Amino acid sequence: MKLAEALILRADYQKRVEQLKNRLVQNARVQEGDQPTEEPKVLMEELTSLLGKVKQLIQKINRTNIETSFDNNETLADALINRDIIGQERKFYSNMLEEATMRHDRYSRSEIKYVTTINVKETQKYVDELSQKYRLLDVKIQELNWRTDLME
């Protein structure tokens, strides 16, 4: 199995875990005299089994990310961390730009006037650079995910 396939499977497992948790909550309590739609004990066993599969799959994915070389200096795990940090920084500056460029209409001269304290043009250019770095890094990571076999 390729690493990319394992990541897709992990996402599927996680969706199934959420669905099982919701089904369990719905069937954990019923009106006196009624029967649950599904047997909670069966759902709990299925959830426990599925969580075991999720654990094993995540361990294999993590092992693969740590052992797979991304470039001459970094592992795939390092590249994933870099991508996440770039994404967080991009999100922060995008949010700051949104706040800085928000228009506050004043109805009279006595209302408080707000002014932007950052260079919007430079900050937007930086956000665009971060977005491009993120996309390029993400493409390389995705490409490597499809070429890399999942380690046992």
From TrEMBL:
<dbReference type="Pfam" id="PF20935">
    <property type="entry name" value="DUF6847"/>
</dbReference>
<dbReference type="InterPro" id="IPR047741">
    <property type="entry name" value="DIP1984-like"/>
</dbReference>
<keyword id="KW-0175">Coiled coil</keyword>
<protein>
    <submittedName>
        <fullName>DIP1984 family protein</fullName>
    </submittedName>
</protein>
<feature type="coiled-coil region">
    <location>
        <begin position="3"/>
        <end position="30"/>
    </location>
</feature>
